[in-house]
Design brief:
Strand content: 25-35%
Radius of gyration: 21 Å
Distance between the termini: 25 Å
Number of helices: 6
Number of strands: 31
Shape: globular
Largest sheet: 12 strands, parallel
Length: about 450
């Protein structure tokens, strides 16, 4: 078991292994999308950095930071039903995507009316579907609302008749699966490798249970806390308590082929932290990873807040609770429930699941860092100053849209074509960047990303 560490020192790559590198190829026919009024007056674009270590934001209403990593992944089909509300961050679907809320209404993708504020860049890819995209029951998909420039949608198959509002972002269909999901084609194989490597990591501490409560505790400061628990045990414990000596990330390896779990209480030694207005909500959501390497069936719900990322690379999953982290499922993913949302909190433990503001093509899976082996951290990218409300507001009523309704004079159900030109010039001007400035900034970021990746590789070989 690793010896106590006087302070937290863990390798933090600023480059995500699983990120979006630009938009899909041009030349595909634009599809008809629902014509709607622009989003409510958007704030300045989020800063092109990730939150600093230990400073993940609580839930709020506005975009704050940039993350190009995959927030939600379905290796099979992705289905929205019931009264599910939104999916923050990049949504990547290898199969078909069906948005069919029972009573219709808006389903937000990319940005959220009440979320982490860690979102893809304005105009960047926010919804990528390898197969067909359909909407029904009066459901409309809003992509990139509250960002000047909206969000990009790439579809490998057909999106004919789908109701989509991208707020000026490009919408492309008939691209073919590989192009639509590029550069994350094959993402399922990458998360299988990552999950297997994490599952092989030795436990640092033991789990205890009592009544309805499972407790993850350690009096030793570590760089990474690792616990194991059987799915059959975890599924009977709706109350979760963490009592740890340091603020290091937490890996929980859940063993077994099937998990049915409806958590409704998360706390630490200072008290409950799963209240959406809690100051520590974001920090705990970014620290915890539930790794279900063996599971083929996962059911999570109902209508609560699940804290932490979920990695289930070979499972079909039914989710009827709000999730806070990454939600990466290798099979079919069905999202339902009343007002259920996904809030994008990248995992602070890294391994390709961390936040990355710079798009880069995935190249390899980095094995877990041995807590016993000291590492020299890379120099992190300095974060910008977030515009965060001092007191987070309570979420809006489930199912409410976070955008302005259509302007008078716009017939319901009217359609318009979305071109790659994006938003009108008046909307783009509100971002504070002209096209030339954006190109220069993008080139600088990519150059810096390449340099950091080279440094990381040399250190690993060393």
């Amino acid at each position: 078991m690793p010896s106590p560490a006087p302070r937290r020192t863990r390798l933090r790559s600023t480059l995500s292994l699983f990120t979006v590198a630009g938009l899909a190829a041009t030349g595909a026919a634009a599809i008809a999308v629902t014509g709607a009024a622009p989003a409510t007056a958007a704030p300045a674009s989020p800063v092109a950095t990730c939150p600093a270590d230990g400073h993940a934001p609580p839930l709020g209403h506005f975009p704050l930071f940039t993350d190009t990593g995959v927030a939600v992944y379905a290796g099979g089909d992705y289905t929205v039903t019931g009264a599910a509300a939104e999916s923050e961050g990049l949504l990547l679907v290898a199969g078909d995507a069906s948005f069919a809320k029972t009573s219709g209404g808006v389903f937000n993708v990319g940005t959220a009316g009440y979320g982490s504020g860690i979102v893809p860049p304005a105009g960047g890819q926010m919804l990528a579907v390898g197969g067909d995209l359909t909407t029904s029951n009066g459901t409309s998909v809003h992509v990139g609302a509250n960002l000047a420039g909206g969000g990009a949608v790439d579809v490998g198959g057909s999106a004919a008749g789908a109701s989509i509002d991208s707020f000026g972002g490009p919408v492309r269909s008939s691209l073919g699966a590989a192009t639509a999901t590029s550069p994350n084609t094959g993402f399922g194989s990458l998360i299988e490798s990552t999950s297997a490597a994490l599952a092989a990591t030795a436990d640092t501490d033991d789990v205890t249970t009592s009544g309805n409560t499972v407790r993850f505790a350690s009096t030793t400061e570590r760089d990474l806390y690792v616990f194991s628990i059987a799915a059959s045990t975890l599924g009977t414990k709706p109350e979760v308590v963490f009592d740890l000596a340091s603020d290091a990330p937490v890996l929980v390896n859940v063993t077994g082929a099937s998990l049915t779990w409806a958590p409704n209480f998360f706390a630490d030694d200072a008290g409950r932290f799963d209240g959406p207005s809690g100051a520590n909500f974001g920090e705990w959501s970014s620290r915890i990873l539930w790794n279900l390497d063996e599971a083929t069936s996962v059911t999570l719900g109902t209508n609560g807040q699940l804290i932490g990322s979920v990695l289930a690379p070979v499972a079909d999953a039914d989710v009827s609770t709000s999730t806070n982290g990454r939600l990466l499922v290798g099979g079919d993913l069905t999202v339902s429930g009343s007002g259920v949302e996904h809030h994008n909190y990248p995992w602070s433990g890294g391994e390709g699941l961390e936040c990355s503001p710079e798009p880069t093509t995935p190249e390899e899976v980095v094995p877990p860092v041995d807590p016993e082996t000291p590492t020299t951290p890379l120099t992190p990218v300095e974060p910008g100053t977030p515009v965060s409300p001092e007191t987070p507001e309570e979420p809006a009523t489930p199912g409410e849209s976070n955008v302005t309704p259509e302007q008078p004079g716009t017939p319901a159900g009217s359609t318009t074509e979305t071109s790659a030109a994006g938003a009108e010039k008046a909307d783009l001007a509100s971002t504070g960047f002209e096209a030339t400035g954006i190109a220069v900034l993008a080139a600088a970021l990519l150059a810096g990303a390449g340099a950091l990746l080279a440094i990381a590789r040399r250190r690993r070989r060393a």
